[in-house]
Amino acid sequence: MAHISSPDSPFSLRLDASTGLPSELTIEDRAGTISREISVELTAELGGTERRHPTGGLLYENTESVSELKPSGTMTRVHKGVYDEYQQQATLGPLSVTLHYRLYPVAPFFELAATLSSKKATIVRNFHIDIRTQELRSATLNAPGNLLRRDVPMSEFGSQPLGISPLGGLRGSSGIVAATDADSTLVLWPNQPTEIPDIFMSVNGSRLALKTQINFAAEVSGQSAAEVLLMTMNLERGGFDLVREHWPAWASRYGLTSPNDAPAWMHGAGIYEVQIGTSYFWKNNPYCKYEEIRDLIADLDRVQELGFSVIQLMPRQPYPSYNVHDYADVTTSYGDEAELRQLVTECHSRGMRVILDVLLHGVLDNESINSAVQGVIDGPLYSKLDDEVSDTLAGDLSDDDNYWIAWSRHILDFSEHWRGGSPEQTPLQTSHPDWFATDSEGHVSGIYTKAFDARNPSWQRYFRDSMMHLVLEYDVDGFRFDAPTYNFFANWAPWARARAFMSPLGCVPLFVDMRHDMRAAKPDALLYTEPSGHLLRRSMDVNYNYDEQWLVSALLRGNHTARAVRNGRDFMMWIQDRDDFLPVGSHTAHHIDSHDTFWWPQWGKKWRREQYSLDAVKALAATFLALDGPYMMFTGGEEGIETELRKLLEFRNTHRDLWSERGTFDTESDLSGHLVIVRRRVDDQEIVCIVNTSDYSTVELPGAYSSGWQEAFAYNAANGQLQPYGILALKQ
Known about the structure:
The protein is α+β, with helices and mostly antiparallel strands. It folds into three domains: 3-253, Beta-galactosidase, Chain A, domain 5, CATH 2.70.98; 264-378 and 393-548 and 582-647, Alpha-Beta Barrel (TIM Barrel), CATH 3.20.20.80; 549-581 and 663-732, Golgi alpha-mannosidase II (Immunoglobulin-like). Strands 1, 2, 3, 4, 7, 12, 15, 18, 19 and 20 form a ten-stranded antiparallel beta sheet that branches.
């Protein structure tokens, strides 16, 4: 076995002689030496054919799996200035591979990448990496931002795999998996910057396993090589607290940063997400709050009186619905142009802001609608469409049937309404065919829309110009960008196939560049996007809270599985860890209902109040309102909780400066574990928000808050007690 080390790094590793892949990790410092054995397997899928997946995108068939990685020749060492790199030539089936072993002086100490080429053109579909540790009998596990509470003993993890959110994913946070035993912490980090991998963590006895499918796609040849980052690993003496301490520098090294200059009006803001027009639900049940923009304008006094300071205007329903027509066509997309101008004027006169909700996942036309409908009918879930589905974000990423059943119903609900307003084929496909992702035969790919390839420079100019036009011409205050990574499949068009899988994350550099233009035109403009992952936080002032959506169910249904959040104390620790592993200055917008949660359940269970109870929703709203960042609510979500919502938003608006700084959690005062306690202090002002998340237990007010505090708001709380779902806000 080869041994690799660097004079600048405490980290070294041994390689399996037959594969060239890591087999032992070692860290050596003044305190001694720690070693951990691992096994690594690498598999590539090559060739094969493509067809439309029933739910959209591409399904690969008849691929060849190759896993016999064979090193050849002599390993070379290249000093890269800030790290040492060893290079090893190898073959993987018909592929010529250069393995890059990179050793760094600071954590994370090791990464492995591969450069791929081939004498003849070869299609690479996916990479699979399987990493298994040695026995870690007393280890605890952490995966911040995923469906795992803090410090779960490996013995309590259970037999079911856990889906881990990647850096670029919709529900992503850190993507880190860490196992801590008596003297060290092993960190496994699928750190793919240009792909959105599927990652699953499991425990077999006392061994930890991480299975990563890198959704890599490229045609490689002698003239076209491609590099893929396979893994990032670290072994540190000490516990997970040390990883948490080092994380900011670690993230900065990989460019996982935040602008950290959000506009002041965002802090503590209440965002009212507004749908114009009619939505349709399973069996054609309609919902319409505002038929036209003028109806919203007429309701602004009520919305502001509730405490909302920002209007988030969605594309109108049912067409273009939550889809794209033409970014430059304001009337088709949002409603009457004059009324949009009036809405912005009316809001600004009230001190309110207007942001537009912008879609990125593609264009709707009859061709795409028909393909989507036929995919549902021919797909494996068609017979299950009448089945009851649960909140799809309450479960693990590895279980997605609920989502695709709900999605299939959504397609059928809207299809006839979409067809009525859609062209047979979008004019953009004729004028700019290179803007769209296609299969290898030139057929445009998509979900129920035709997918843009967001990395296309011409499309990027079109998108940037359109957004700037909306800012300059209509004076909007920013945007929420929906689904910029939703088209998570390759573009096999001739111009793109050398790096076919760069399209899903094409918006990452686009948003970075666009931010400069927007802030130059409007210094306090807001950029806000749906994915929770780190890569989109490079350019955004605030991101969605999809990574914490499953906590709604964990809190209210008492999800007592050994590895999940079980109570208010676990909730606070989870949020604390998640926030610790976000880029410095990053903000999260919290919500419990949205336009998406609205269509996932059955009709009649579309609201959290229908799924749980009004008291539960009040407690949920208070819990998430107490957290850092804005609070967003979908139009109609306020019904039945107006009184409490008004008081809670007023409390935030009155003490807005307190929401400009990160709050602290009190995880020690409450012996029951049921309370969420968030404290905020700026100068001589201090407040505390306390919520009883239990539906069955009355909790005594902790002694730390029994004197010296003035009651600002109370619900189901009196005489030093918080009843089930009780809320108490105090100030000094």
